Amino acid sequence: MTQTRIAGPPRIEQLRIQNYRALRLVELKDITPLTVLLGPNGSGKSTIFDVFNFLSECFQFGLRHAWDRRGRAKELKTRGQNGPVTIELKYRERPGQPIITYHLAIDEGPRGPVVSEEWLQWRRGTRGQPFRFLEYREGRGRAVSGEFPDEQDQRVEVPLKSPDLIAVNALGQFADHPRVAALREFITDWYVSYLSIEDTRGQPEAGPQERLSKTGDNLSNVIQYLRERHPDRLDRIFEILRRRVPRLEKVLAEPMPDGRLLLQIKDAPFDQPILSRFASDGTLKMLAYLVVLNDPDPPQFVGIEEPENFLHPRLLPELSEECRRATEHSQLLVTTHSPFFLNSAHPEEVRILYRDEQGYTQTMRAVDVKGVKEFVREGASMGHLWLEGRFGAGDPLVNAGAPQERGRKR
C-alpha cells in the first residue's frame, strides 16, 4: 500500500469544465467525499460523469482514443462556442497538503486533437503567488523536477513526441517528477462504472482479476480473486447480500473444463446453485457494486451512474450507506433519480443540475436552496424534500427543471 493510501486518498475539491457538450461553463466548488448529482433527464448529469471517464481514458489509452470515440470536436465541443475543451481540477494529494491545480485544454488541429494548454501549479506556503511547475503547449514545454518543486528551481525543457500527448501522463512515468507522477497515478486509478447486467452474466476465461471492469464483464474473475486472496472481504459482501436478498446463501465462481469461469448463485433452500444468467438483475448489480466498494485496494475515485436501475428501492439506502463507508478510502460521484438513494445524502453533498434558457447546464448546491437546511434540521429527508419540490430546481414538470426564483437564496 502506498503512502498516499495510508495518509488518506487524494480529494478533488473543485472542478471547472468549459465547452464540453452542454457544459458551456460549469464549476463545482467545495466538492465533498460523496457527491450526488440530481436533475431531470438531459440536465447534464451524465455529461459531468463522462468528463471523469474522458480524463481516465485519456490517461489509460491516449487522448486521440478518448477524443475520437466521442465524435471529435464536432460532437464534443459545446455547440455555438469557440475555444478549446477545458477541464480544470483543484485537488489535494493528502489531507492538509497544498492545493494543486491541474489545467488541461484540448482543441482540434488538422491532424486530430492537440493539447493546446496544460499546466500544474501549487503554492507551497501560505504566502506568495501560485507557481506553475509544469507548463506545456502542443507538445512543447518545461517542468520542474523534485519532490517539492519551487519557483527558484530550474525549469527543464522536455519536448514531447506529438502535440496530442498529455504531459502529465508522459512525465508522470519518471521518478524525477513525483508530484506529476502522483497525479498520473490518481487519474489512472479512477473507476468510472458503466455496468452492464448482461456483461456480468458472461463466462470469461478462468483466472483471478483484482478489479472489476467498467462494464462488469469480469465479475466472475474478481469473485475468484477475492475467494483466493481476500476471503474476509468476500464474506462481508455475502453478509450484506444475505441481509437484503431473500434466501441467498453464496456466490460461486467455478472453472469449467473448457477454461471458462462459471458464475453461480446458490439459494439456501436448494442443494444446487443456479447459473448467473438466470439470477435476478438486482442481485447481480448489487453484487457488482459491493465488489467495487469493498475492493481490498480501492480506487481513489469511484463514479456510479444511476444505481437505482434494476434495484429494489429498499436496497438503495443500504447501497447509499456502503457508498458513504467507502469514502474513507475513495471519493465517490453518484448520479441518481431516486429519492430512496437521496434520503441518505446531506444537503452539502447534493448538486442540482438544470438547463438554462440557452440550453446550457447550470448547477446549484442543495444546501444553498432557501429552507433546505432548516427542513433537514427538523428531521426531513432529502428525497422527500425533492419530491415535494422544495429544491426549486431539477423538476422536469416545472419550467423544464430550471430554478424558481422563490426557491433560491438571494
Task: Write a brief caption for the model.
This protein is 29% helix and 26% strand. The chain has helices at residues 3-7, 45-61, 63-68, 72-76, 167-171, 178-188, 197-200, 219-229, 231-244, 281-293, 316-326, 339-342, 372-377, 382-387, and strands at 11-20, 23-28, 34-38, 85-92, 99-109, 112-122, 131-137, 140-143, 156-157, 191-192, 248-255, 261-267, 274-275, 301-305, 331-336, 350-355, 361-365. The strands form three sheets. It has an eight-stranded antiparallel β-sheet. Strands 10-14-15-3-16-17 form a six-stranded mixed β-sheet. A three-stranded antiparallel β-sheet has the order 11-12-13.
What is the typical, i.e. mean, pLDDT? 90
CA-based gyration radius: 23 Å
Number of domains: 2
Cα end-to-end separation? 47 Å
User: In what order do the strands lie side by side in the largest sheet?
Assistant: 2-1-4-5-6-7-8-9
- Helical fraction equals 25-40%
